[in-house]
Amino acid sequence: MGIGRRGFIAAGVAGALAPLVRPPAALAQKFEGTANAGHYRFRIGDIRGTVVSDGTLSGNPRIYASSAPPDDLNKALGDAFLPTDRFTLNLNTLLLESGGRKILIEAGAAQTLGPNGGRLFANLAAIGVRPEEIDAIVITHTHPDHVGNLRGADDGVAFPRAAVHIPEDDWTFFIRNEPDLSRLPMPEDFRRAFIANIKQSLAPIAKSVVLFRPGSEVLPGVTTIAAGGHTPGMSAILVHSGREQLLITSDAAYSPLLNIDHPWRPGPDLDPEAATHARKRLFDRAATDRIPVLGFHFPFPGIGNIRIADGGYRWVAAGWQFEG
Ligand SMILES: [Zn+2]
User: Fold this and answer.
1) How far is the CA of 272 from the centre of ligand 1 (A)?
2) Which residues have C-beta within 8 Å of that of residue 220, sequence separation ≥ 6?
3) Confidence bin at 27 (pLDDT 50/70/90)
4) How many angstroms is it from 11 CA to the middle of ligand 1?
5) Considering the chain, what percentage of its residues have pLDDT values greater than 90?
6) How do residues 102-151 score in pLDDT, each as one tens digit?
7) What is the DSSP string of 263-300?
8) Which of 23, 41, 21 is nearest to 31 (CA)?
9) What is the dihedral of CA 71, 73, 78, 80, to 10 degrees?
10) Pairing label, strands 303-309, 222-226
11) Residue 296 alpha carbon to ligand 1 centre in Å
């Protein structure tokens, strides 16, 4: 088979222009190893919020939209210019600073669910925050991607001064017992590693953990909201200061595209019915009260609003703010 017209043109262009389009060595060096910012600053009243990325994880899109008819899912992904075989989720932890205290919402994944997590410490360092400066950490639920960074080097505590607040029902289910995750869409060896990762990540803080039942203000300006279903104890969080609020929906939705703009259910919901009710309660509250939302797994920085439209919901991403 001879070389096609397209191949011929490409080869010709490459041959003629390669020396010209290749960046000078100094320029190439300058760009090597550079990355975009892994943090995003904003305010909730008197509280300074900074979304600090722990990186990303990815999986088959079907995991995150288990109730979607395959053709509809492929079309939605195609219409959004996304691949149909791989879907990327962000890991958006949130640093809250107020009254001289530093509170982290979610600890992030480390590399418990893939090689692209674990950027939290570098991204905190980039804004001048050391792990020992964190006073408290609030975990919405104990899946590995939310607790992975709690275990530091040598199995020690990664945030040595932080009181770690965890929903009691998750602690009972995952740590005090052997959790039955047989209904989650995972191969058996992945399921075993998933459970082991949870137990290993939480072992260093077992003696000092602060357990909570959702529905109360666990720290000033940080109120937990019962949202069980994804896990037994999953809690959403309302951050509030003065008249301003931010609703952290945790894993009620993985993706604005899949779980808000389309009504598809995430596969890893342990109790799908309870999770569906929790999702609806959170979305309705965000839409009715016009509360900005932060989604842990949404495209960075994960902030926007949910509105009610055409019998369902729509995600409206917030515009970039240059002043935080
Ligand atoms: Zn998650």
Assistant:
1) 15
2) 98, 99, 101
3) low
4) 45
5) 86
6) 999 999 999 999 999 999 999 999 999 999 999 999 999 999 999 999 99
7) -PPPTT-SSHHHHHHHHHHHHHHHHHTT--EE-TTSST
8) 23
9) 150
10) unpaired
11) 7
- The domains located in the chain, with CATH, are 36-317 (3.60.15.10)
Contact 277, 284 (CB under 8 A): no
| Torsions phi, psi for 33 (to 5 deg) | 80, 0
| pLDDT value at residue 211 | 98
38 Cα to the center of ligand 1, angstroms: 18
- To 10 degrees, the CA torsion angle through 142, 145, 149, 153? 110
Tell me, what DSSP letter sits at residue 113? T
Task: Tell me the pTM.
Answer: 0.90
Q: Is 221 left (phi over 0), alpha (psi -120 to 50) or beta?
A: left
Mention every residue, 6+ apart, whose C-beta is less than 8 A from residue 294: 51, 92, 94, 246, 247, 248, 249, 301, 302, 303
Average pLDDT over residues 72-78: 98
Instruction: Check residue 18 and give its pLDDT.
Output: 39
Closest to 225 (Cα-Cα) out of 213, 233, 237: 237
What spacing in Å lies between the alpha carbon of 318 and ligand 1's midpoint?
Answer: 21
DSSP 117: B
| DSSP designation for 154 | G
Span from the CA of 223 to the centroid of ligand 1 (angstroms): 20
What SS3 state is found at 155? helix
